[in-house]
Design goal:
single chain, two-stranded parallel sheet, alpha/beta, 122 residues
């Protein structure tokens, strides 16, 4: 729930949908974000991210920003995430427990692992 909290408090988001496949983590997020959930600023869901993205696309309720952390390669979520974004939306692909798509894992390795290659920025 820390990312949801940061988007609310530091990013100025008016609403955050936070989804995690791990039910225990969603329960912990509920404890941290309970007030924001009660105020309707946060919705917490448990399930596969691809299902969440597909639901958004089918209902045409697209996201302004999607922050995906696949805890490894985010490649399985890339296509579904792009389809769930509004035109001009932002897609953040994170990999908390893996190498980044730039730097030492750049080039063919990143393309194989993530389905994309990032460019390091200063």
């Amino acid at each position: 729930g820390i990312r949801a909290l940061r988007y609310l408090k530091e990013g100025g988001a008016g609403f955050v949908l936070a989804n995690d496949a791990n039910f225990d983590l969603v329960a912990a997020a509920q404890m941290n974000l309970g007030e924001d959930v009660a105020m309707g600023r946060v919705e917490l869901r448990t399930g596969d991210a691809s299902d969440c993205f597909l639901r958004a696309r089918l209902s045409k309720d697209y996201f302004d920003l999607i922050d995906v952390d696949g805890f490894g390669s985010g490649a399985p979520y890339n296509a579904e995430a792009v389809g769930a974004l509004k035109m001009g939306g932002l897609l953040y692909l994170c990999c908390t427990d893996a190498r980044t798509a730039a730097g030492k894992n750049a080039g063919p390795q990143a393309l194989r692992a993530f389905g994309a290659v990032a460019q390091s920025m200063p």
